[in-house]
Amino acid sequence: YNVYNALAAISIASLLKIPMDKVKSALSKIQVNGRMEVTLQRNGYTVIVDYAHNAMGMKNLLQTLKAYHPERLIVVFGCGGNRSKERRYGMGEVAGEMADFTILTADNSRYEKTEDIIHDIETTLTKKTDKYIAIPDRREAIFYALKHAKRGDLIAVIGKGHEEYNEVNGEFTRFVDREVILEEAAKLD
DSSP secondary structure string, 54-110? Predict the structure, then answer.
């Protein structure tokens, strides 16, 4: 999607007769927070953050990441509370089919229990794989992924993307995946 968006921008710039060197320069500086955002590269593994928060988005993302031929594709995700359970089932199925290891966690549980949401995801995930762990606390889930990462791994922390909060029982607390990844990685130094 980032490439498609860039191609659209290039096409418009071309129609507007903007010099290509200016277009190249502008595109080289663009970073879209939370959309295929490379957040950490260390010890031979890579962590990306993405907003994929439904089965189709997750499938497209994981297909793209698999094209890089990682040793293991690890996905860290949860699903929002007070939303369609079909989203949970779909994402569980995609993770079961495409990820080498899955870490289930919280993602804006709203007025539902995170454990209940995880259980819903497990109903389809476990039909496809037993290579997963449930860690309801998202910070702890991210730390677990980093602590167990190996050379060649590609870790996708998905669902929140650009969001800067976590919503639980009507309360919003600051939570930025990108920041948490860097904070937790620093604990491993």
Answer: SHHHHHHHHHHHHTT--S-EEEEE---SSS-HHHHHHHHHHHHHH-SEEEE--S--B
Give the pLDDT score at 106: 98
pLDDT tens readout for residues 44-87:
999 999 999 999 999 999 999 999 999 999 999 999 999 999 99
* CB contact at 8 A, 147 and 43: no
Please tell me the pTM assigned to this model.
0.91
- CA distances (Å), origin 59, targets 38, 62, 106, 153: 18, 5, 20, 18
Strand partners of residue 103: 76, 133
Are 161 and 49 contacting, i.e. CB atoms less than 8 angstroms apart? Answer: yes
Compute the C-alpha angle 72/73/75, nearest 5°.
135
One-letter amino acid of 151: R
Which is it for strands 132-134 and 101-104: parallel, antiparallel or unpaired?
A: parallel
Cα separation, 79 vs 88, in Å, equals 6
Contacts of 128 (CB under 8 A, 6+ apart): 93, 95, 96, 97
CB 43 within 8 A of CB 151: yes
Q: Residues 121, 152: contact at Cβ < 8 Å?
A: no
